[in-house]
């Protein structure tokens, strides 16, 4: 009973913080990942609109984005429901993501222009201040930009498209990693290994570092989800 009460209190706290579509997506996704919202639970647009104090339009957009990430299923003429994302399916998505990131990093090491390498290094260096300040949200935004630079640096539009699509589906789970104590500092160190390899134009080393990085993210995200359902 105490665990259920704590989850309900957490649910209300998170929902009150949401005022935009992006915040609603993040809040609802966190509730699903941590097990506060269970598979099969109905997500009524009117109820959510009342909780977030918004119209149904942004709620509908938030649910559409969650459908794209696989966390929510919307059936014709029926309310959206929370889907059951199995560990097997999640692992398969992270496996694909790790392979895509590895290829992007390897090609970035081989193809990035001098200016692109300088910008990557400069942004990475500045992110150290975010780690020092424990600025979780700002570092998360940096993390997205960091990986986007790897996709662009590969100079392969189709590969970048695949990487972005897969990342979008995994976004709630990748974000969850930063709830783990000390994860920001470790993420920075993993990025550093990737950056140094790219600056040396060492494709194999960059690819391996990126693959290992995403594999660690997968483990961290799963740990967070497991903690949330205790």
What's the layout of helices and strands?
Layout: H1 2-16, H2 21-33, E1 42-43, H3 45-52, H4 56-69, E2 72-74, E3 80-82, H5 87-111, H6 114-133, H7 136-153, H8 157-176, H9 183-199, H10 203-228
Antiparallel strand pairs: 1-3, 2-3
Helix pairs in contact: 2-4, 3-4, 5-7, 5-8, 5-9, 5-10, 6-7, 6-9, 7-8, 8-10, 9-10
> What is the rounded distance between the termini?
13 Å
Average of the residue pLDDT scores: 84
Number of strands: 3
As a percent range, the share of helical residues equals over 70%
Domain module count: 2
Number of helices: 10
Order of helices and strands: HHEHHEEHHHHHH
- What structural class do the secondary elements suggest? mainly alpha
Instruction: Give the low-pLDDT segments.
Output: 1-18
Task: Characterize the overall form.
Answer: elongated
Structure description:
Helices cover 77% and strands 3% of the residues. The N terminus is likely disordered. The protein folds into two domains: 81 residues, Winged helix-like DNA-binding domain superfamily/Winged helix DNA-binding domain (Arc Repressor Mutant, subunit A); 142 residues, Four Helix Bundle (Hemerythrin (Met), subunit A), CATH 1.20.120.530. A hairpin with a 5-residue loop joins β2 and β3. α5 packs across α8, α5 packs antiparallel against α10 and α6 packs antiparallel against α9. With 230 residues, it is mainly α. The radius of gyration is 19 Å and the shape is elongated. It has a three-stranded antiparallel sheet with strand order 1-3-2. The longest helix has 26 residues.
